[in-house]
Amino acid sequence: MSWIDIGALDDVPLRGARLVKTRAGCVAVFRTGAAEVFAASNTCPHKGGPLSEGIVHGTRVTCPLHNWVFDLETGAAVGEDARIDVFPVRIEAGRILIDGAAVGQRSAA
Amino acid sequence: MTPKNLVVIGAGMASGRVLEHLTDAAPGTWDITLFNAEPRGNYNRIMLSPVLSGDKTYADIVTHDDEWYAARGITCRFGEHVVSIDRAAKTVTGENGTVPYDKLLVATGSAPFIIPVEGRDLPGVITYRDLDDTEAMIAAAAKGGKAVVIGGGLLGLEAAAGLAERGMDVTVLHLMGHLMERQLDEAAGYLLRRDLEARGITIMTGASTAAILGTDRVEGVLLEDNTGLEADLVVMAVGIRPETRLASDAGLEVARGVAVNAQMQSLSDPDILAVGECVEFDGHLFGLVAPLYDQAKIVADSLMDRENAFVVRDVATKLKVTGCDLFSAGDFKDGPGREDIVYRDPARGIYKRLVIEGDRLVGAVMYGDTADGNWFFGLIKDETDIEEMRETLIFGPAYQGRAPADPLSAVAALPPEAEICGCNGICKGTIVAAIEGGAGDLAAVRAATKASASCGTCTGLVEQVLQVTLGDAFKLPAVQAICGCTDHTHEDVRRLIKSMPLKSQEAVWQELGWKTRNGCHVCRPAINFYLLADWPLDYLDDPQSRFINERKHANIQKDGTFSVVPRMWGGITTPDELRAIADAADRYKVPTVKVTGGQRIDLLGVKGEDLPAIWADLNKAGLVSGHAYSKGLRTVKTCVGTDHCRFGTQDSTGLGIKLEQILWGSWTPHKVKLAVSGCPRNCAEATCKDVGIICVDSGFQVGVGGAAGMDLKETRRLADVRTEQEAIDLTVAFIQLYRENARYLDRPYKWVAKVGLDWIKARVVDDPGERRRLIDAFELSQSIYRKDPWAEHAATRAQSYAPLADLTLEAAE
Lengths: 109, 813
Ligand code: SRM
Ligand SMILES: Cc1cc2nc3c(=O)[nH]c(=O)nc-3n(C[C@H](O)[C@H](O)[C@H](O)COP(=O)(O)OP(=O)(O)OC[C@H]3O[C@@H](n4cnc5c(N)ncnc54)[C@H](O)[C@@H]3O)c2cc1C
Ligand code: SF4
Ligand code: FES
Known about the structure:
The complex is a heterodimer. Chain A is built from no helices and ten strands. Chain A is an all-beta fold.
């Protein structure tokens, strides 16, 4: 894996999300706990709702447009036959790193 | 065989264990020299906290005394710093001379991290690492006064509890949002905070230290937000870092710690081993003794040429503060397919959360009752298959067939004199008497006692009293819980937030037994509103618990863009405002400009990233947020009234503007719309608004509970009044009563139908004292919320509207 630094953990509000633009499309980075982050596609498979704008609860997010709920660990929609892509992320020394290979990026260094 | 020379640098917890293993298993094979910078030998460092709090003395925690070293022929050079290692000559130099080694063990532990702020060197600023620090704290505490502990982790909290125990007035500053965030989740962090606060310790989270103040010695601490705190003692406990200076000076490979292989040998020199907190193995650092003891075993085996390899294992954490019972182990994040099991017992302050992945337990956080901690830890370490016991796992090993806590027990436990119905002042005893006298259902209790006959918010409680009293003979009507996170209704939660009182979301989740970690998109916005409505000064609005429109102060569109609606007070605008709107529409390429049904202009299709900039531009022309997105005051529509119209009886435009200026910015259970018409021809459509005022010759007719959305409702007359001021007072009091009592997402007309217009009149119209209280309560809340969120976000949070990172740019380079 090629880890790319996308920003400080504290730039993502607790129980909130931020957007990262990548060559594989817009990726939403969710912070579900003090030191718990997930990354997933920003685009709701229902009608394209921006998931980074949804309410984050537990390890899930609710789409802001019509309330589909996604499990961020698997990407599966709860109670719907749909899923979003999820991408490996990790936290190191207060920074968030995303797997560059998974989001179509060359390694940063 | 002549013994070979082993030199050990550092007499800490790790090296102490190495020496035990080595001298037990192979006595006499090594000639050992033990250096220690501290003027003493090995002691149980983790028991410094009980020494600080006065539960133990230094003598109690010494692990190896002079006799022990003498019996094993260990040369002790305590109080002597090692200054260098010469790998070519294979010697170690201490302050008092040089010794040769065949094997060298580096066991230098960690050094406390000092945050690089001004004043950090002042006398009275100490860290918490060794006996000297502990004694310094004990001496400082003997003089009393105020202590500030920087850092709300394990060490900081143990220091804080010890100092409080010794009578100091202690404040803990913690940078993160909740205490011990590395070991605890928010729920457990909340309980810990509550327990520490109960013993008089002040906790400030999100607190960043800017400087330590004082001239000759410490006098205070200054925070980034300019809060100043007095301090006679400052304890810095913000973390540790491996003590590696000697090793790096000697040219050994050091990443964050001294890099070692699984035999604990330096990657650069097999004759040098390292053990303890100074070590880095496979990217891991170590800060608790359990893995250090594992390492000590490996070091001893390596020195005896026995094969063995160190493996990293999970560790469990406990806090050594009596009364704060917490436990955390394993890992509660990441990885696909994880599942949470949450258990809360509000009455006993218990919280447990298990994290399961597949059929394995991978993490556990517990507070209040940690008796089963080690059992869970065992399941985590052994990777036990828990599939069979998944359903009952959270109840621990002792569980067999025990039912979860009875939800009615709280009501059952209420004494007879506990008030159930606040409106009518009816206590539990009266209701129980009525039930025993034959009132078998809610209607009968209402008829007999008046309980729950007014505002109705105690209906759930009365039903629970019925159930407790009649048992199975009473069939509880299916109550509608807020959502799957709780069994409580909106009404119950509102009542409990006020009566318990509960002032944070964590408090609601814990004390009311939420079944999820932190709610969901249904309950979070409701709870956030209830808290800010009831505790405007104590509770800080949580944007993350708001629907996107309210979080970003704009309406989201179907394509993810936003609409921007500036306020036009009472529908009045000016050429300058219109020009600013036109300029903004041009500059930000707004695709659609529309006149709304609310007498103002909507800029539709603005990109999320442009919001702060367009707001800043509109602000310059004096335009502020129209809150077209909020569960709050929307518009006050007006007609032209006496200013221009030949039929106008009063200044309807002027009253509309006044009302809008009083009410704007307030949050309400659902949106609130007003209108003021200048005469009964009603051009402002006031008769279908939440509050609609019709001006007449004799004054003002104030109507409430109208709507023209999914239901069409005509307003009902609250009162006719003579003066404009009375019309304003009634409006404000009505809206505050609605804010205090309605359930989230009930428009006023629904709430009025539930509580009855008479109940409202009795408070707002007939009771001047209550009316005044409502108006004052509204004003208090508005002292916080009557402000333009656009200006605030444009100035301080613009950054958060842009993407966190744009990797497409990087790729294009
Ligand atoms: C912009 C506007 C339509 C227009 O072009 O005129 C509008 C637009 C929306 N209305 Fe409305 N309403 C607008 C005036 C009205 C009116 C007329 C009025 O206020 O005089 C009504 C009926 C009166 C009433 O509320 O009683 C109205 C009744 C609703 C309702 C139904 C409310 C109800 O209680 O039944 C909703 C749904 C809701 O709020 O849950 C709604 C919801 C919405 C939302 C916010 C839907 C949403 O959640 O995304 C629309 C946002 C569109 C967008 O993308 O920006 N809108 N909406 C009007 C903005 C007025 C303003 O200046 O703030
Ligand atoms: C107050 C407190 C409470 C704690 N509570 C817990 C707990 O509850 N549970 C838990 O698992 N862990 C706890 N810990 C952590 C635990 O004490 C450490 O993990 C452990 O002591 C580390 O052992 P060590 O041998 O690596 O280092 P240390 O025990 O720190 O020993 C290192 C020694 O090396 C000496 N030294 C350093 N450089 C030189 C040099 N150049 N020359 C000579 N000597 C040198 C130092 O003076 C020190 O005495 C606590 C720590 C503290 C301070
Ligand atoms: S009536 Fe209101 S909610 Fe419905 S489409 Fe029109 S603007 Fe949207
Ligand atoms: S677009 Fe996400 S739920 Fe409709």
